[in-house]
Amino acid sequence: MSRVARAPPDKLASKSPGRKKNGEREVPINKAYLGELISECIAVTIIITIGNSAAAMYTLYDPSPYQTAYWGVCITWGLAVTIAIYVTGAVSGTHANPAVTFALALYRGFPKSKMVPFWAAQTLGAILGAALVYMMFSPVIDIYNLAHGTDRAAGGAAGVFFTHPGLGITPIRAFFNEIVLTGILLLGIFAITEEYNTQAPQANSSALIIGLLVAAIGASAGYLEAWPLNPARDFGPRLFCYFTGWGSQAFPAPDNYWWVPIAGPFCGGVAGASVYQWLIRPFLPSRQKGFAPTATAAQPLD
């Protein structure tokens, strides 16, 4: 009696429809996709929890440990991004920013069908991060507002959670500022994660460089409008604050400002990614010569 040769169980699993490889373990595609969404949510939760806690330390305490050392706030935000990448990068690539997700969908082959779910997960993470900060600092917020004769409805301590224009900055100017700053962010991210860029850091150190890039942008221009750079970073906490006492200070915000930290980073992300894609990437020597990417090159975020 003839027998049909059977592949080993692990080979059968690898050929089963609806599954994808994840290291040495076979993970169903649906489960892997759920893991990506959870990862994005956790990444933004980490960033907002650490970053907004630094903002609380800066805003609520007198004397603030950061008032004469603003770089401390910037490096804290940057390291929050680095930690988030190290925690979740192997699962989702840690976009952690709708503007990054959009740029990767445009230029790096990230599936467009995943884009909106990623945005939702990132925004949920920002809401959860804001909720954790609120849980920790709400008594301090109340004491701060009482001491300064204000309250949440008047915008007291709102800067802990969401951004606003600084001295002399109109919403329109803030919009263009964020195009420039987020453009620099995406230009840097695309360069740092470019597989053909021989000057890029190795994959295991790119997270640190991206964090330092975020810190550098904040240190150079953070006082303009608190450098949102990330639509979820502002929108999530702003939405949370709308329901926890800040009301119209969060939405629509003075001068109807709420749209600026969303639209500015999206436009800036496309601009920065486009500059890299069309003005830098085509001229990379290793790409022109057809070299294969090195094993140590930083990989794209997707």
Description:
- With about 300 residues, the protein is mainly alpha-helical.
- A two-stranded antiparallel sheet has the order 1-2.
- It has ten helices and two strands, in the order αββααααααααα.
- The longest helix has about 35 residues, at about 115-145.
- A hairpin with a 2-residue loop joins strand 1 and strand 2 (about 25-30).
- Helix 2 (about 30-60) packs parallel to helix 5 and helix 3 (about 70-90) packs across helix 7.
Give the SSE map:
Blueprint (H helix, E strand, L loop, with lengths): L8 H7 L3 E4 L2 E4 H32 L9 H23 L5 H10 L7 H33 L23 H22 L13 H20 L5 H16 L13 H21 L4 H4 L14
Antiparallel strand pairs: 1-2
Helix pairs in contact: 2-3, 2-5, 3-7, 4-5, 4-9, 5-8, 6-7, 6-9, 8-9
The class by helix and strand makeup works out as mainly alpha
Number of helices: 10
Described by the principal axes of the CA atoms, the overall outline is: globular
Low-confidence stretches: 1-19, 295-302
The radius of gyration is 22 Å
**Total E-strand runs:** 2
> Approximately how much helix is present in the residues?
55-70%
Strand order of the largest sheet: 1-2
Largest sheet: 2 strands, antiparallel
Q: Could you tell me the mean pLDDT?
A: 89
- Share of β-strand residues: under 5%
Order of helices and strands: HEEHHHHHHHHH
User: Gap between N and C termini, in Å?
Assistant: 50 Å
